[in-house]
Write a structure and sequence with these properties.
- By secondary structure, the protein is of the alpha+beta class.
- The chain folds into 3 domains: about 15-80, Uridine Diphospho-n-acetylenolpyruvylglucosamine Reductase, domain 2, CATH 3.30.43; about 85-200, 2-Layer Sandwich (Uridine Diphospho-n-acetylenolpyruvylglucosamine Reductase, domain 3), CATH 3.30.465; about 245-350, UDP-N-acetylenolpyruvoylglucosamine reductase, C-terminal domain (Uridine Diphospho-n-acetylenolpyruvylglucosamine Reductase, domain 1, Alpha-Beta Complex).
- It contains 8 helices and 22 strands.
- It binds uridine-diphosphate-2(N-acetylglucosaminyl) butyric acid.
- Uridine-diphosphate-2(N-acetylglucosaminyl) butyric acid binds near residues 254, 286, 292 and 297.
- Pfam families: FAD_binding_4 (PF01565), MurB_C (PF02873).
- This is UDP-N-acetylenolpyruvoylglucosamine reductase.
Length: about 350
Amino acid sequence: MPVAQTSVATSPVWFAAGFALRAYNTFGFDVRARYACRIESEADLAAAVRDPRAQGLRTLVLGGGSNVVLTRDFDGLVLLMALAGKRVAHEDSHAWYVEAAAGENWHDFVSWTLEAGMPGLENLALIPGTVGAAPIQNIGAYGLEMAERCVFVRAIEMATGQVVEFDAAACRFGYRDSFFKREGRDRFVITAVTFRLPKVWRANAGYADLARELAQHHGGETPHARAVFDAVVAVRRAKLPDPLELGNAGSFFKNPVIEAQQFDTLVVREPQIVSYQQADGRVKLAAGWMIDRCGWKGRALRAAAVHERQALVLVNRGGATGADILELAEAIQRDVLARFGVELEQEPISL
Ligand code: EPU
């Protein structure tokens, strides 16, 4: 409930001290923030960080809260990103350039681009979270990463209040990684993202689960973008839990990438291991498969559990804490290391 709202149009809404974050993190952890305020514009953001209550406090930016493990109350200021708006910023004969504000829901944005006849993001349907969170961990699924479509990220530098535009190279995108997750963390707040959607469209339907789903409904036909979108939604619904029903943050670990030499030794011991050859000669391993083979699928530690249909996803069965999830994650990491000699890196940020 808002407790203070000044009459200045650009002032953000501040919420009561001890703000409950349960509805603002997809694990549904029951923790509180010292302060929270709702950011609807870049001016709101500037005003929030200048506010006397914010001085000397840490800040935490929350979009959909789908990539964070909140282990305790946050003794700082939470910025609830609610910047809205999406538009075709520019169009030429080759592509549409579509800009969306950071607070837009990612899946609604993807649906909107398709309805407007601008395909290219359909493989990323149904990923929880907001547009502003997408570049931070370079969201990806079914053979596409957002980095392949992202041309600009607009952000505010917290220390100076200045607007900074990052082109794709400056974002330093990697597999579930970017500048914003590393050096830029806590320094910049993303306010908008621009995507380039090429007018010549080709289905990206090679990913095994997706190809299977499409073959079932479309046989050998080349699918159109809406069919790819529907197939992605169907595959995700079948495997991944809906955070509104079962708290989770998607894949809890990254798929580890190892050197070819290490893989050659490992595959002799584990001939069934699921792997993907990388362009640089290294090999990516399916962490979900390894966790599954260690017998963790469906197992629980108190209310923290490994999802029954996808071992890479940890879930809150109700009443789990962030510490429970981290304890479970550590037990899994120990077992995978012992059996496969591979370290699993956590994907969501813990706080
Ligand atoms: N597998 C198992 N058991 C399991 C889980 C997976 O044997 O419990 C096997 C599967 O049969 C498959 C392989 O492992 O052969 C890979 O599984 P899947 O296709 O489900 O994909 P993933 O590698 O586990 C990644 C992304 C997901 C993304 C899917 C589809 C990461 C960390 N995760 O999962 O992204 O949706 O591919 O592209 O890269 C996310 O990042 O939050 C996320 C959900």
